[in-house]
């Protein structure tokens, strides 16, 4: 089937239209040629401003661009056809767009093409293979899911758990993100301390490279491409399929929050727990900073897990600072486990922790409810209009060496009033990350994820977004000036010079990978790492 929808590119006014057309024509070479080539694909090509408008926005809401067309591929051969068509032009670029949940235009292609990977989300090749006995221990398990690069993690969850009682072992907090989108970054949540990021939990990929070749790769077959693409920021190829190992899914989760007044106690306990064996720790561990006040968004009420729970501030030790800390842990269990068994397991793990007694909150919920917990927050934020507002978020990895100073100088000073959303901080272990992937992280075994997830009402009800972006920049400058060992997670830079600094000693490897797999720099221009060449 050839589906080719040309509605004509719509412009707000004629003068702008003529100007843009002039730029677009010189950028694209002869549009007739590549448009002709795209007529061969099985999916759809859309030039309508409704579609290109959507593909020119993202969750961050800070950048706006104008792609010339949006392609909804029917399969990997369409993705390859698009890349080959783009190769024939002097300047056209192409971005795979997952679910557009980037903050800084990373999935955009200004005056280029956008491949809407969600179109492949329900591709029939999505397949679950169950080993004869689904081992709880992944290393012994042969079960896996072959999922499309455009599938959402929440689709993977529902299919694997409801259909087979199995689940991937490493997640993100929020699951309306695509498999290809998170694997292009890292994919981190409270399971990463044990299993590593999602980039450490994939055994095979199908990738369409910037050369237009479709390659199946793994640790053993074309490993250079496999590891380049993982955490590769979309620079080397489009992930059209991923093989995700599965383990037995638990039925239930006990979700627990423990409050700390002292950062030292919080870090000691969280570092202790992430360093223990599976038997002697929780199945999930995260943490966050909150404001020591009754502010409904940033303060005490943000800690409780159930409307029936009450944060009794009388328990807060006298002399506590402007911010407090919350360790968030979860323990998996099965329906057949007796409640007293779960209680005693939790007590065993918790007994030596130094949280503020009296400030402990817990609920039991199903595994699916737990993994979909952010969906509730999304629904509330959508109702209040905050989900659609700009999100100038900042994500960092900060070394254990520097996290105490970061806490003193950032959380307790510039951010002591909160940011209108979660301020996550929790430890991860370097040894769980594969250094062969393209991700860069701080030195040292323990480093912290710091996520400043700002949710503020749109201006003028909330602060202007430029002010918040400036605040983020100040934090980054502060970390640089202080000589912290840190890296941006979900990085964003405007110049190649800055990208070289970001990658540090790994830059030559990253540039070599680009020269090999996308020598014309066709892919993911929104990352602003390389410029298109002829
Ligand atoms: P996009 O934003 O669409 O794309 C991101 C990049 O990947 C772009 O460069 C794009 O070109 C490239 N890309 C997309 N698909 C492919 C593909 N198939 N092949 C090759 N390249 C591709 N991250 C975490 O690690 N943990 C979290 O808990 C977490 N929670 C989040 C919650 C929310 C509400 C939001 C908005 C983001 C969160 N993130 C989290 C960040 C998220 O993982 C990244 O922004 C991710 O890139 C978003 O996935 P996406 O499918 O929307 O990708």
Automatic annotation (TrEMBL):
Belongs to the oxygen-dependent FAD-linked oxidoreductase family. The keyword Nucleotidyltransferase does not apply. It catalyses: N(6)-dimethylallyladenine + A + H2O = 3-methyl-2-butenal + adenine + AH2. It is an enzyme of class 1 (oxidoreductase). Its EC number is 1.5.99.12. GO terms for biological process: cytokinin metabolic process. Residues 63-249 form the FAD-binding PCMH-type domain. Keywords: FAD, Flavoprotein, Oxidoreductase. One of its GO terms (molecular function) is oxidoreductase activity. Its cofactor is FAD. This is cytokinin dehydrogenase. It comes from Spinacia oleracea (Spinach).
